[in-house]
Amino acid sequence: MDLEDTAARLGVPVEDVERVHRLAGDRPSAPLPAKADAPAILDRLGVRPDDAAEIMAGWPDADSPLWTPELRWLLDRSIALVRADLGGHGWLVPGPALPRERGLAWRHLYGYAYLALVGVVRAYHRDHGIADTVSWVTLADLGRNLAVDRRMRGEGWPVMQSWLTLHVRGGLYELGRLQHQRGDAGTIDLHIPDAGPLTPEAVEASLDEAREFFPRHFPDERYTAFACGSWLLDPQLREYLPEDSNIVRFQRRFELEPYEEPDGLDGDVEVLRFVFRTLTTPLDQLPRGTVLQRAVVDHLKAGRHWQWRRGRFPIPPRSTV
Ligand SMILES: CC(C)(COP(=O)(O)OP(=O)(O)OC[C@H]1O[C@@H](n2cnc3c(N)ncnc32)[C@H](O)[C@@H]1OP(=O)(O)O)[C@@H](O)C(=O)NCCC(=O)NCCS
Fold this sequence. Notes:
InterPro entries: GNAT_C, NAT_N. This protein has helices at residues 3-10, 14-24, 38-44, 49-57, 69-83, 104-127, 132-139, 141-151, 157-168, 200-217, 246-251, 267-276, 291-301; strands at residues 172-175, 178-181, 187-191, 225-230, 255-256, 309-314.
């Protein structure tokens, strides 16, 4: 197989194709579900009707003209690449960021990979005794991300395609309000899905659930702290938000690590991503409907910057997991 030619046809750097080739090797892929079953599965995965319709229309049928040999190769090897790390819980790039405007196969390739991996991770969940409800709620983050992708007109997808590999490798679980990512060094990493207000009660209930969940389902792993990396932990937000806002109350749980200059994650970009769901709209055209939206724009217009911060807090000793 000619990797240079494949890269050229895919419109991506050859190094990205070499990486897929290297990591996937000839490891096993996994089949997509039967097309007839797909609508019901997409529904369980929280995929909205407009996204589901696109996914069905671009389905990689054996005779589909939308699927060139290079796209079929990438789909198959990307599934193998992610599957090879089943049980892993680090961020994983499943393959090159594609020129998604070229068509439905290009647009949803990593979505089809996710569908193929649902069967694989469902078996992994069963092996770990994880309830069906937790399994499906966790996997339904696909639908939420596709809806955000639509809102963001594709701008956010390169991050999402890596993010969604956590779910299908068994690295992350949605327990109530928060998503909990298994981590190294005894740390559970918390993520906050876009799913309504972040009330202290909902956060507490989710943390309680995690304290039970991890020792039961991953008895060989020992967790002593919750951690989080987020724009939500930027202490500058307190200059603008009331003390009783959910974000400020969430912040109070954490002991912050010292601020480091961004090494990849730019606070300004992440704030725009999560508060406005756009990375390119000029500041003057952004909505000013909430106190946070006004704060974000005024802060940036003043020449200041937002910070991506990490913090942690111990899991109380009596219930150390
Ligand atoms: C985290 C989140 C649930 C907090 O929302 P919340 O519980 O309403 O937070 P607060 O009570 O602190 O809100 C304070 C103010 O900021 C506004 N606000 C909070 N998050 C907002 C957001 N993402 N976009 C716009 N406004 C927001 C609220 O509407 C409120 O303003 P108002 O009084 O004028 O209505 C919300 O920001 C969200 O859904 N974010 C997307 C997911 C995310 O950022 N995850 C973390 C990724 S690292």
